[in-house]
Design goal:
Blueprint lengths: L2 H6 L8 H13 L8 H23 L9 H11 L5
């Protein structure tokens, strides 16, 4: 597996791995009909927006690493009580 593809599959680097997998699976199951998978694409897009805003905020506050680890993300989502996306 190429290094870039491996990084995208790493849950510590890609916070939207589940959403990405769900949209890919939907495309596979629906013969690549994008209209049938629009809700999955929207969830992925909202996930990326949410974690990007978290990353920007952490960067502004000087927190390293700017992207929370998978364990930290679970804590953040648990504290929110529901999925923000």
């Amino acid at each position: 597996m190429p290094m870039v593809a491996g990084r995208l599959r790493d849950p510590d680097i890609n916070p939207c791995l589940l959403e990405s997998d769900a949209s890919t699976r939907c495309m596979d199951e629906n013969n690549y009909d994008r209209e049938r998978c629009s809700t999955y694409f929207l969830k992925y897009k909202n996930c990326r927006k949410f974690w990007n805003s978290v990353m920007v905020q952490r960067r502004q506050n000087g927190v390293k690493p700017s992207m929370p680890t998978a364990a930290e993300r679970d804590e953040i989502l648990g504290a929110m009580g529901k999925m923000p996306y």
